Fold this sequence. Notes:
- This protein is mostly beta strands.
- The protein is built from 1 helix and 18 strands.
- A 6-stranded mixed β-sheet has the order 9-11-13-17-18-15, with no helix packed on it.
Amino acid sequence: MAITPFLNLDLPTPTLTIGPVWAEMLNTALEVVDDHDHSSGKGKRIKTNGLQIDADLAFASFRATGVGALKLTNLGATLTGSTNSTSVYSVAGNLYFTNSAGSAVQITSGGSVVSSPSSLTSVQSTNINTNLVISAADTFVYLLVDTTATRTITLPLSANLASGRIYIIKDKTGSSFTNPITVQVSGSDLIDGQSSLIINSNFSSTWLIADGITNFSIS
């Protein structure tokens, strides 16, 4: 009689095993097959290339242990709202956490950990010489705008940003009186009650602070 390698099924031998015993052995084998779950001794262990996970995988509050490293896929935008609360993820190569209020909190910026305001010594800057639509995934804070021509800068939705997210917009070349910078919102957001802001004083700058909901405040 043959013993199978993974479920250890005792199988009848054709032409040798008599009828009643044959039936009993098949019934026993089928009961074992019915109970298999691929754990040790209950079927062949499923390898990585045999898995195709195409939906959220619930761990029922258990931990993932023995993981050597966690490699995250970069998302196109931050995750906000209650359904994404307590999520850890990557956007444009930076690490984010969505808190229990559903607001996205940036943890890293480039090669640095995002500092708290009390210990902030530098911010990431970028030069702007064209119209710009800021993505929630962009990590810069200080926008140095070339005003040799008029510029329009569009903010991301405040709801896609962490509360307190700052943008500093600066007339770098000193021509905003002639070529103003228009800062406009996305969707129904507002900047202190207005849908746009004009920077038109040479070498001037403004600070905009997101509330993580629908508004930016001018500081």
